[in-house]
Structure formats: structure tokens, C-alpha cells
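CORE FACILITY INTAKE
Project code: CF-77B
Contact: R.S. (postdoc)
Sample description: multi-component assembly, three entities in total
Requested service: structural model of the whole complex
Turnaround: standard
Below are the sequence entries exactly as provided by the requester. Do not edit them.
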Amino acid sequence: MAEQKIYFGNLRPKRGTIHIDKSRCKGCGFCVEYCPRDVLELSEEYNQKGYHPPHVKDEPNCCYCQLCEAICPEFALFVTLKEDEEEEGEKTESRP
Amino acid sequence: MSKDVKAQEAKNPMEDFLRMDRIPHIWCSGCGIGVVVTSFVDALRKSELDLNKVAVVSGIGCTGRVAGYVKLDSFHSTHGRAIPFATGLKLGNPEMQVVVFSGDGDIAGIGGNHFVHAARRNMDILVICVNNFNYAMTGGQVAATSPLNANLSTAPYGNFEYPFSLPYLADACGATYVARWTCLHIRRVTMSIQEAFQKKGFRFIEVIAPCVTLYARRNRLGDGLNLLKYYHDNSEIRHGADTRTLDIEYQGKMIVGKFVDREKPPFLECMNTHMKKALGDKYVPYGE
Amino acid sequence: MKKLKADPKGVLTGAHYLDGDFAIAEGALSAGCRFFAGYPITPSTETAERFAERIPFVGGIFIQMEDEIASVTALIGASWAGKKAMTVTSGPGFSLMMENIGLAVMMEAPIVIANVQRGGPSTGLPTLVGQQDMMQVRWGSHGDYKIIALSPDSPQECFDLTIQAFNLSETYRVPTFIMTDECVGHMHEKVVIPPADKIEVVERKWYEGPKEKYLPYKPDKDMIPFMVKAGDGYRFHTTGLTHDERGYPVINAECQDWVVRHLNDKITKNAEKIIKYEEEQTDNAEVVVVSYGITSRVAYRAVQLARKAGIKVGTLRLITVWPFPEKRIKELAQKVKAFVVPEINYGQMVLEVERAAAGKVPAILVPHCGGWVHDPEDILKVIKEAAK
């Protein structure tokens, strides 16, 4: 579990929650390939059409870039911003 | 606890722009048209246009089905005739922002003449041409944009005809905005469409997209991911490049970017200005 | 539909000396047509020229498109933008327009197309009269559908019937055709244009209910769906594919059955309201001359001579050519000896007369293959033969 670093006092990297509509997926693999943080992978399960939809394998790493949402041809993925929670994070003086 | 509920209630922001009763769409796994539609919707959202005044006109073909999926005033016309349809629509109601969303076969093949004249007239429409190098809907026949030596169902021993360079054609005919991207350039396609929305006149954006079931299969190019990798490795952004140098060889380098961005008064403005000068006060202006 | 008075801006009230082509343009402007997309073709070009001259003073669009295919498609786009739209053409252009006439039928978009017929086939006789597209206007596009076609016999009728064509097109949401010919088109005669408040124009049935409940192709009680225009927030979809009430494509046999029956029945079941013809002395006629357009004027001379010779001749002049007045022909077939059908083609409307007569009496064609009008003597000869 990655620690949420806090930079410059109170700057945090954004984190996202990925919503996947498994029934729409056609297993093209674009989202998996182009996620910059390797958050997604094709699952073992089948959807109704016989494709392997993706699933989130590393949720805390999602940085809300929304690339998967933009590149999905099936309108099956979207990302919502995780609300700010009061988390105990390691305060660092150093730059990222 | 409340976080989970909120997450469950979250709606895909695309849904406001799509006819959800027709989703999932008919395009194949790995087809790039859905990506272009997503980029288009993103541009609509970011441009904050009045959606009641945006109309989408499509022709026939895989890309031609776009009109059926967007929740705007949309028209699915006959093969190649999306551009004159859009001309009539725009001139009939000049307030509309009319977008022609169609494929390379529809726009540059059978619709070639209409493309040339609408650009010449500087008709105030935005044309988004999804280029997958073949006539996909009917089974992968050779198109006016198919690269030399590609294998297609009506060129089963390889294509020996020279293809069009669509940005060159658009530029030569007088378009005010010409850009080419691949569907992998998702954010840049969105930005181009946004820029085009702010301009007037004939605006043309070519988006190269994979056709997995026909073009890629016949030429053994792999699936959507393989084609996207080819776009990634072989596309080079050269804004302002000379449109005469934009030919695409089979599996060769693709030059993308914004090539033409100029100001030229559109058809209605030309008409009103000219008639006012010619007829003075007696002229009844239109669409102002 | 709303019945309104004509917009006075487009009405050139007064008595004028115009040719048929010009009269069509004036009729269009009087009817409220503010969008014209055309392509020059002899002998119809004068209509486009007249419209181009007049529209800057009325307010609207004239655009010369790159070909006839673009012209008719632009009309459909303008129709969906709420405009009354028209084009004019002749034989070769008419053939080009066929595919998109089918689109207008399928989308139920009101448009008006005038065909100033000339000799055919192919390039044929560009500057000389013909009436050779009468079947083409009915059957030209692929698929099962019905249209409305009118046939004026004089520049005055060109004016009047153009207004009627717009009204019919708006009422029934179907492409309506004005099938004139080079002779009437280039003939100069007196045309009286009444004041605007005496001209009745009809606008399509606009939908005025709640936006979420709008179904673009749900037929109303009179079988015609309500129409909207782009930009009013209805976010509708319309397509040339076989579609259901929502306007979405549905590719199966049931939907096809529904669409085909709807497109055809809306004309057939309203045919009585649409059909117009002019009958004269048919009550105890032995022979009835069925004619239309310029031929009816020539035939009238033959009819005069025949009556002088003692033959009881009646005339039936078709004003609406399609839907064809088969009921009336059937009725007359019970009483007369024969129908004589002169037309400037090698036999087109005579086939309809024959069909409607159902073998009871012969329908005799007096053909003229085009290029000139009939010699009344030729028609007289056939009338005399038929009366024997």
C-alpha cells in the first residue's frame, strides 16, 4: 500500500476511483496498455459477450489521469476523483 | 460508507451525450471510432456549447453510425451526401454548429465532389473524417485513401492506385482549419475539435483509426493494440507542415498535427457582404 | 397543419407576362419558399435564375450546388432546419436526384422538385418538349413508396400549382413534384398573382408537446407524424435506414412492414383529398380524352373539331398525375367506348388509364416521341376511330 506523500505542506497527488461497466467491454486492451501506472489488467472472468473485461489491480496507484476513460472505445470506463480524506501522510520537506 | 454509495451513484459523464438506449454500439473490438467519439464528446463538454444548437450529420459506413449514438439533433443521410445535407442544414438554420462525422470512403470517395465544393465555398461546417483506409462496413474494399500495396477485398493482390492525402486536398480546396491526428492522440484530437469549434468556415480534421476486422486482418497487422503501437511509433507531430508532404505509405511514417489555421469569411458572410455592396439598402440580409 | 396567409414579402402581386419557369419561381416565393438549391439544366434554368434574382430582396438562400445530387440533399437538410425548400431540374438531373428523393420519402421531409421535362432518354433533346418522365416520377427511386405529382398546362397554372405543391408537401410530408415541360416552361403568358392575403399557404404540423415524449415518426390521427426542426432542443435522430417511431434504425421484417405500409398508406388513404382533375362533357361521352400538361391544350383543339363533327367527346385533364384518379377512370370506363390518351412519350400514363379501365374499354395511345407537340389532326383521327 503506497503511502500518500504530502508535498509543500499540503499538496497531494490526485487519486481516482475507476468505474468499469463490464457488460460493455469488448476486451480490446487499450486501457490496460495505456494506463501510465499499470493500474488495470484484463481479468480472468468473462462478460456476457465472452470478452475478458479489465479489473483494477492496483487501485491506490491510480492518479486520476483519466487516460483509460478517454481511450476506451466502448464508453465503458470512467474515473471519479477520490474525495480528500484526512489521512495521516508522511510530511516531507524534500521535493518530489 | 458514504464514499462507496457516492461511488456507486456516479454516472459516466459520457451518458449525457449519448443515446444510452442504443449502447453498446456496433463497432468491433479494437475499432478506433469509439475513441474518436469519446474525444469529440470531451471537446463538446469542454467547449461549453449549447448542445441544442449542435447537429451531427453522418453518411453511410462504420463512422456513419456515429449520428445514431450522439444525443444531439442527428441525421443519418445517404452515402457520400453528408456534406450537402449539412450545407442545407447550416444554411437553413445558421445558428447551428453543424458537424459532419463520416468515414474516408464516404467523404473522399463517393462524396469527393461535395467535399471539394463545400471547402471551396468555405461552408461553415466542421468535418471530422475517421480514416481507416478502407470501406469497412461493406467488408474492407479499397478506398481512395488506401495506401499503395495494401491488401483489400477488391484489391486482393495489393492496391496499385495512388491514395489521396486528405489534408492536402482540404488545404488545396480552401479549408480554414486542417489537422490530422491518429485516434491515439486522444487529448490532441479533443483540442483540435475545440479549436475548430471556435473558428468559422470549412474546418477539416482527419483522424486515423484502426480497423481491426478488415484492414488489419487482411494485411495481418494484428489487433487494435498492434495498430495503436504502430501509430505510436510512426506518427510524428509537425505543426504547420507543408500539406504537400503528408502522404502515408503503407505502414510508413504518418505526419500529424495542425497544418492549416487561417481566417477566411464563410459562405454566408461573403453572401451578405457582397449583396449589401451590390444592392445597398434593398438587400434583405440573411442569417445575421 | 397551420393554414396561413402568404408572406407578402415574396408575393409579386399584379398581372405579369411571364414564362412557365419564371412563374414557378414566383409561385415558390409566394408559397414561402426561402431556400433554393439547384443546378442549371435546360430548360429549367430560368427558374433558378429568377429565384436568384429575386431572393436577395425577399430574404433567403439561393445556392447553386455542384450537381443535382447535392441540390436535392441540401433541400432535405434545409427542410429539417425548418425551411420550405425547392429545386428545379430536367430529365438527366432528375435521374441523378432519385436516390435522395428516396431519402426524403424515408425521412418524411417536405421538399418540392419541379421537372421541366424534355426529350429523352439520356441527353436527348435539351431544348425541346417531352413528357417522358411521368412514370419515372412515380417509380424512379428504389423501394416501395408514393409521391404526389402535379401537371400544369400554362404559366398561370405553373404559379398556382407550385403553391399547391408546397401545401401538399407540407401537409403530407412527402416530396411533391411539378411535372411541367419545356413548352409550358418557355411559353410566355399572362400570370395574375393575387394579393398575399388571398393566397393560402400551409405549414407542416409542428410538434408542441413535452420534449421528452417526442417521437419523430409516430403517426397522428391523419397518419402524418408531427415534425420539429433542428436547433429547438428535441435532440431527435432521423435516418434513411428502416426506422421505428423513435427514428432509430431497426433492421428486421416487422419494422420494414410498418414503414413501407406507413409511407404508402399515408398517400393512398388520403388520395381523395389530393386528387384533382378537370372534367368536361363526360356525362354522355362516347370517347374521353385523358391528357395533361401542354398536350391537354393541343388535345382541346382536336376535341373541338371532333365535337363539330358530331362525336360526343369528353375530356379529363389530369391536374394531379400521381396519385392517379383511378376511381374516376373506372367509373367512366363503365360508360364510354374508349379512352384516348395523347401524350408526348411512347406510352406512360396510358398504362395507368389501361390499368384503371381494367379491360372494360380500350385505352388508345396517341404517342409523340418528343421534340414538338402533337398535330391536333393526329389526335382527331384517333378520336374518330375510337368513336366508331
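Facility notes:
- The two ends of chain A are 18 Å apart (CA to CA).
- The mean pLDDT of chain A is 84.
Invoice: internal transfer
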